[in-house]
Write a structure and sequence with these properties.
Helix content: 25-40%
CATH superfamily of the largest domain: Glutamine synthetase/guanido kinase, catalytic domain
Structural class: alpha+beta
Mean pLDDT: 93
Radius of gyration: 21 Å
Number of domains: 2
Number of strands: 14
Order of helices and strands: EEHEEEHEEHEEHEEHHHEEHEH
Strand content: 25-35%
CATH class of the largest domain: Alpha Beta
Number of helices: 9
Largest sheet: 9 strands, mixed
CATH architecture of the largest domain: 2-Layer Sandwich
CATH topology of the largest domain: Creatine Kinase, Chain A, domain 2
Shape: globular
Distance between the termini: 65 Å
Length: 352
């Protein structure tokens, strides 16, 4: 009987920055086609999701895609984590996005996420020489040539694998810091957008094993005069995409200003090292929105301003953010009916 290798993928319990984990289940192809993917379990005491005296956690498949690493008929299986009694595990951030996506389904929200990452070989960034540092930033962004581009083989292999797997990848490009790249997911509805980002991250790290490259999602992988790494999140509702939608985009920006701290709290660990007001960021203690301004918290793209409709780009999320939390937070803030507000703490919030 033909066998299928199903790679079950889930998020561990490490906080504030979860990582994907996975293990392989071998299934009979005939039984799989008849019964579907079964639930499975894992040792939560090894992933910060349970204690040793009661270590079992439940994996429930929520999405399966082609496995481009092993090839057909094998699968990558994204799972949610549940307690043994079937209740939602505290580490399961996808469950909250499920609820938010259902509550605001009538808004027909779309997300596009720009995932930046940095390549390392061991503890050294891929572009760094044995002594000293590379030439200053300038020629690396979307560059070409061995003196400007590092790690293209992995970036291209990742793009091809994502497309073979059926993920909605919009493109890739080298970034401002040498050895740093980006891939874009979407536009997609909330759950598919976040799911595909996690699957894309897993594939990138898995392919990195083949190339001897470690992938870092740290928001400031190299201190000093180098760009950080973000996960800029593009967001719109159906009304924003229709004629006159610019007014709603501006209203969304005003709402986002009022809960800036709440968003920053789930926008990635170590983000204060990246959001300094330099290197195409707004300082973490400020909030600004503007047309075409890559130093703003929220950028309104030039075509959105010109057309009077479109989407906004939230530039605050760090590369290591959890897209389930970011997408849920944006939905709740922008689409919620109640007027939002929260204590401002020690940060000064500015808007123009």
């Amino acid at each position: 009987m033909a066998k299928v290798m199903a790679e079950y993928i889930w998020l561990d319990g490490y906080r504030p920055t979860p990582s994907p984990r996975s293990k392989t289940k071998v299934l009979d192809q005939e039984a799989l086609e008849f019964r579907g993917l079964p639930d499975w379990g894992f040792d939560g005491s090894s992933t910060e999701q349970a204690e040793g005296k009661a270590s079992d956690c439940l994996l429930r498949p929520v999405r399966a895609i082609k496995d481009p690493v092993r090839g057909a008929p094998h699968l990558l299986v994204l799972c949610e984590v549940f307690n043994p009694d079937g209740s939602v595990h505290p580490s399961n951030t996808r469950a909250a996005l499920r609820l938010a996506a259902d509550a605001y389904a009538h808004e027909q929200a779309l997300f596009g996420i720009e995932q930046e990452y940095t390549m390392f070989r061991g503890l050294t960034p891929l572009a760094w020489p044995a002594a000293g540092t590379p030439a200053p930033q300038g020629p690396y962004y979307c560059g070409v040539g061995a003196d400007k581009i590092y790690g293209r083989q992995l970036a291209e292999a990742h793009l091809t694998s994502c497309l073979e797997a059926g993920l909605t990848i919009a493109g890739i490009n080298s970034e401002v810091m040498p050895g740093q790249w980006e891939f874009q997911v979407g536009p997609l509805a909330p759950l598919p957008a976040a799911d595909e980002l996690w699957l894309g991250r897993w594939l990138l790290q898995r392919l990195g094993e083949e190339h001897g490259i470690t992938v870092s999602f740290a928001p400031k992988p190299v201190l000093g005069d180098w760009n950080g790494a973000g996960a800029h999140t593009n967001f719109s509702t159906r009304a924003m995409r229709e004629p006159g939608g610019l007014r709603l985009i501006e209203e969304a920006c005003r709402r986002l200003r009022e809960v800036h701290l709440e968003h920053i709290a789930v926008y990635g660990a170590g983000n204060e090292q990246r959001l300094t007001g330099a290197h195409e960021t707004c300082a973490i203690g400020e909030f600004r929105y503007a047309v075409s301004d890559r130093g703003a918290s929220i950028r309104i793209p030039m075509f959105t301003a010109k057309d009077g409709s479109g989407y906004l780009e939230d530039r605050r999320p760090a590369a290591n953010m959890d897209p389930y939390q970011v997408c849920a937070r944006l939905l709740q803030t922008v689409c919620g009916e109640a007027k939002v507000g929260s204590p401002r703490g020690a940060l000064s919030l500015l808007v123009r």
